[in-house]
Design a protein that fits this description.
Number of domains: 4
CATH architecture of the largest domain: Roll
Number of strands: 32
Strand content: 25-35%
Largest sheet: 6 strands, antiparallel
Structural class: alpha+beta
Distance between the termini: 51 Å
Helix content: 25-40%
CATH class of the largest domain: Alpha Beta
Radius of gyration: 31 Å
CATH topology of the largest domain: C8orf32 fold
Shape: flat
Strand order of the largest sheet: 2-1-11-10-7-8
Length: 593
């Protein structure tokens, strides 16, 4: 991980916003450099930092507000009428912590420590306060993170308001939601349920770079007044480093990914049934260190310091046949965590602040635990009760490459000497609904599909190919799905292959546009099924869907009817649970009739 630590730990600007009162100011900018005085100014002394004139029930030196240890504190200064925080009187109790969103009652005025990403809009007689997520992407919506996190309407007029309708639209997705605002009495405020903006998943999975969009808010069809509300829409593989988004990192731990399952199987075959957590962690480390050639890589290109693009398992273990790949420390930590979760352990990922950058470690509890907080900010228990490694030790880069024992030692030293930003308990995150992210992005060809394409090119020669050669390429796999389907349809695969081969030779070798279309459709079928691989069934369905005169003539020559072939495919799907065909693929086949 690189320089996201610089800005991620920088204290964001804070505002004290007016909720109720006769003051002219809507909000006061707070300084973290010195304590701020809250009071009512008169000509006999200096003006307070937060001046609540003309409220007569506010003392001249009413309260003090300051920032310490990454949080805000407030203390009543012995005022006549006291100070309430969240409804509790704090006069005479010393400093009290002030959480974002907390309301402060001082005299007849009410203030609020504005949460991060707070916005204020005005329309008709209403003041609308809302907290908007700084970013949206597939991982965040998958975790249930709303675009609008908090919504309140306030009446600062002298008369009750009438029923109104607030409409929220996130452009350009067209996601829209409407909230009814009931009548509000003068000087009153009400909390409203945040709007639910349903963004189509396919719109989010198709993004490869971030884009800045606007949240448009209207009241009874008219725009509200105020600053534009901007929201970043991130690619599917970009993790938001915002404090409120840390839990979403668990969604990128993919224990059921095919390559993760492959690594876990190799480890479990060697480890045995009763292997300890330490033994499993050591064996995963040794497998990735010795049996794979992994490079330490920089993060994928990104243009924002509040987030980082991540590599999914097939992007870390990119060349699975040659067992080569690579990633950043957090890419590798997420891969290790996925392997440990697949092996029945309780993995964790810790993020440390090294000053100029963040660094990720991976670990797991030594004993199975049933009750844990998803986010842990105190490192002592993590050092005493969990096992940790520095995942970069399994790469080929020197001096990072190290033995398992040295990777453990480095992790312990970093946990002891460096500041921890947070640690994520993946198992605890699962318990509150942060499940693994369904595969998003561009699927890769499976081994069966890659072999079929290569066979098609060989059959065609000189790089010129077509749908007939592609079908023959699928039939070349004697244990493949296509062979079983043709057998169910005709009973004689040899005759079908002979007929297709004769038809292919009869046609001149020209580039077939339907061939490229079939490959493109196969990728779309895999994406719709959230599959990381374009599998044989995706390609076969795509071949049956494209309209190709050359393929039609070849099927006729081979004595194959498209309709019968589709019916045979459905029969094989229904009768073969081992193939685990996606339900979405079966639905696609029904559309051919």
């Amino acid at each position: 991980m690189t320089a996201i630590g610089d800005s991620a730990l920088r204290t964001p600007p804070a505002l004290l916003a007016r909720v109720r009162g006769k003051q002219r100011e809507d909000a006061w900018l707070l300084s973290v450099d010195h304590p701020l005085r809250i009071g009512r100014w008169d000509r006999s002394g200096p003006r307070p930092d937060v001046d609540l004139w003309p409220d007569p029930r506010v003392s001249r030196d009413h309260a003090r507000l300051w920032y310490r240890d990454r949080r805000w504190w407030i203390e009543d200064r012995g005022s006549k009428h006291g100070t309430r925080v969240g409804g509790w009187q704090i006069k005479g109790l010393g400093p009290a912590p002030l959480e974002p969103g907390a309301e402060i009652e001082i005299g007849d005025s009410v203030l609020m420590l504005a949460p991060p990403r707070w916005h204020r809009l005005r329309g008709r007689d209403l003041v609308v306060d809302l907290v908007v997520s700084p970013a949206v992407n597939y991982a965040l919506t998958h975790c249930g993170r709303p675009v609008v996190e908090r919504l309140a309407a306030r009446n600062w007029s002298e008369a009750a308001t009438e029923t109104a309708r607030l409409t929220f639209t996130l452009a350009p997705f067209g996601a829209s939601s409407e909230i009814v605002v009931p009548p509000i009495e003068p000087s009153a405020s009400i909390e409203l349920p945040p709007p639910r903006l349903a963004i189509p998943g396919e719109a989010l999975t198709g993004l490869t770079e971030r884009a800045k969009d606007q949240l448009i808010v209207q009241i009874d069809g008219q725009p509200l007044r105020g600053n534009p509300i901007e929201c970043w829409v991130l690619p599917y593989n970009e993790w938001s480093a915002d404090d409120q988004d840390r839990l979403s990192l668990a969604a990128f731990v993919l224990p059921n990914h095919p390559l993760v399952a492959e690594v876990a199987l190799a480890v479990s075959n060697r480890a045995g049934v009763h292997a300890s957590a330490e033994d499993l962690l050591a064996r995963v480390y040794k497998h990735l260190s010795d049996d794979w050639h992994l490079e330490y890589l920089f993060e994928p290109p990104s243009f924002e310091s509040r987030s980082q693009k991540l590599r999914l398992p097939h992007q870390v273990l990119e060349a699975s046949r040659e067992r080569r790949g690579g990633g950043t420390c957090i890419d590798l930590a997420l891969l290790f965590a996925a392997c440990l979760e697949n092996l029945g352990q309780q993995p964790m990922v810790a993020v440390l602040d090294l000053g100029a950058s963040w660094h990720a470690l991976v670990g797991c509890w030594q004993a199975i635990r049933t009750r844990e907080e998803p986010l842990i900010e105190h490192p002592r228990r993590l050092r005493d009760e969990a096992l940790w490694i520095d995942p970069t030790g399994c790469t080929r880069k020197h001096p990072e490459r190290s033995s398992f024992e040295n990777a453990v030692g480095k992790a312990r030293r970093l946990l002891r000497e460096q500041s921890m930003v947070f640690a994520l308990d993946v198992a605890a995150a699962r318990q509150i609904g942060v499940t693994p992210l369904p595969f998003s992005g561009e699927p890769l060809p499976s081994a069966a599909v890659a072999e079929a394409v290569e066979a098609a090119r060989t059959l065609a020669g000189d790089g010129v190919t077509g749908t007939v050669a592609l079908l023959l390429g699928l039939l070349a796999d004697e244990s493949g799905l296509t062979r079983r389907v043709v057998t169910a349809c005709l009973g004689d695969v040899g005759a079908a292959v002979a007929g297709l081969t004769a038809a292919r030779r009869a046609d001149p070798p020209t580039t077939d546009a339907s061939y490229r279309h079939a490959l493109s459709l196969a990728r779309e079928r895999a994406k719709e099924a959230r599959a990381p691989w374009v599998r044989e069934e995706h390609l076969l369905v795509a071949l049956l869907e494209v309209r190709s005169g050359r393929l039609d003539r070849a099927l006729q020559e081979a004595g194959i009817d498209r309709r019968h072939l589709i019916e045979a495919l459905r029969t094989v799907q229904a009768g073969s649970a081992k193939e685990e065909l996606q339900a979405s693929t079966a639905c696609e086949i029904s559309s051919f009739f």
